[in-house]
Amino acid sequence: MEEQDKKGFTPDYIDMLLPNQIFVFGSNALGYHTGGASGTARKKFGAVWGQPEGLQGQSYAIPVDYGKSVRKDAEVKNAIKRFISFAGKHTELFFFVTRIGCGMGGYRDEEMAQFFREALNLKNVCLPKSFVDTLSNGKIDFDLERFVEAQNLVYDMALREIKEGQKRGHWIWFIFPQIKGLGHSYNSEYYGISGTKEAKAYLEHPLLGARLREISQAMLDCVNPSADDILGFPDVLKVRSCMTLFDMVSPNDIFKQVLDKYYEGKLCDKTIWRLGTREEKSKNAIKLSKLHITKDGTILLADYQKEVKMEPIVKAVYLLFLNHPEGIAFKYLPDYRKELTDLYQKIKPFGLTERAIRSIEDVTNPLLNSINEKCSRIRAAFLSEVDPSLLEQYIITGKGGEVKKILLSRDLVVWK
Questions:
Q1: Does pLDDT of 20 surpass 70?
Q2: Closest by alpha carbon to 341, among 310, 312, 372?
Q3: N- or C-end of the chain: fewer Cβ atoms within 10 A?
Q4: C-alpha–C-alpha distance, residues 202 and 179, integer Å
Q5: Which residues of 360-369 are buried (b: 16+ CB within 10 A; e: fewer)?
Q6: Cβ 130 vs Cβ 140: under 8 Å
Q7: HSE of 139, CA atoms in CB hemisphere, 13 A
């Protein structure tokens, strides 16, 4: 995550922290950090198994779960008081409080928020938006100043780059904001728009609304006919998401013109999905994303703006099967050992160690279980990035004894 001067709200998704930032999560009374935020705290931020409270690594545990249907409000309130006292004494740290207790703990957001009232006055404690909204008596403060402050530093440069037809700076998140939840980075969360109400407030802001329309007009006036050439990947997708968001709250505005000129009028399905009602969501089902494979073997779900991360040998196996739409029977894997080795060397140009050679030999040996284990890892990698209903299209699948293949249409695969 990056430094921030304003508190904002705790992002819905946190996967990395700066050295001075702390992940605050709800623990059970035994300190068994398994799923949800507690699992994240244990796997990524140093939470200690069996320690139900206090600072541990880059996390801070607050016990809120005392077993099924058991609530101990006094104990929870006291634990939160201890946390607030701790945070007040350690101003060198910045604390991101998650929606603790609002899952297995059995609390509603408005109930748990009351315990954190005193934390509102601490500059180094960031609360979930649902908590802040409750504590501010329902008055919604979208903190649009976060955009103003960021834009004031680079807006003129961003406008000039768009007019010249080539984006070069790193300003996409707060110049062309998207609906929150499309990305996993801190910037995508911090500058993400929470919904239609915040999008309308953004357009009605005298500076932000005017700037968004001005830079959108610059896109339209640009002589470069390709949004991909102007913005590059993946920012070309982020701008489409931005235009879709504001077109949804302000139809027949300049945003539709940008979509028509650069995106053939096609809206961002993921943005529609997040904005829509249940009925709209059923009509706008998530579509398959194109799969972009870069020169170094990076696997990108282009339309979802996500990277599918795998360790090199697993990725090499995946690319091998992607190269063979006809499929490969596991018993014939020894015939593909050289091709798999070549793919591995493209991913790791200087990484063909004895250990790597042994892994390639194991995975192409049909008498071992290595290939099945790699297929399981491929499944896990995609499961965290695509809708479950589409998973089978992206993974290596097939009945035992038959050829195994990746079902995804190769028309959706782009080798860069």
A1: yes
A2: 312
A3: C
A4: 12
A5: bebbbeeeee
A6: no
A7: 5
Q: How confident is the model at residue 101 (pLDDT cuts 50, 70, 90)?
A: confident
Phi, psi of 183 (to 5 degrees): -125, 170
pLDDT grade for 104, boundaries at 50, 70 and 90 = low
Question: Reduced to 3 states, what is the DSSP secondary structure of residue 296?
Answer: coil
pLDDT tens readout for residues 49-90: 999 999 999 999 999 988 765 678 889 999 999 999 999 999
Q: How confident is the model at residue 184 (pLDDT cuts 50, 70, 90)?
A: low
Rg from Cα positions in the chain: 24
Residue bearing the bigger pLDDT, 404 or 121: 404
H or E segment to which residue 307 belongs: strand 306-308
10: closest CA among 26, 23, 28, 27?
23
Q: Could you please report the per-residue DSSP string of 308-356?
A: E---HHHHHHHHHHHT-TT-B-GGGGGGGHHHHHHHHHHHSTT---HHH
CB 166 within 8 A of CB 148: no
> CB of 386 within 8 A of CB of 289?
yes
Phi, psi dihedrals of residue 318, rounded to the nearest 5°: -60, -45
pLDDT higher at 253 or 184 = 253
Q: State residue 357's pLDDT score.
A: 94
Q: Tokens 């991909």 — which residue?
A: 228
SS3 107: coil
Alpha helices in 73-178 (DSSP H): 73-89, 109-115, 129-135, 145-164, 172-175
64 to each of 43, 67, 341, 359, how far by Cα in Å? 20, 9, 51, 45
Cβ–Cβ under 8 Å, residues 189 and 13: yes
The alpha carbon torsion through 122, 126, 130, 132 (nearest 10 deg) reads 20
Provide the mean pLDDT of the chain.
87
Q: Examine the pLDDT at 287 and tell me if it is beyond 80.
A: no
Tokens 């096609």 correspond to: 266
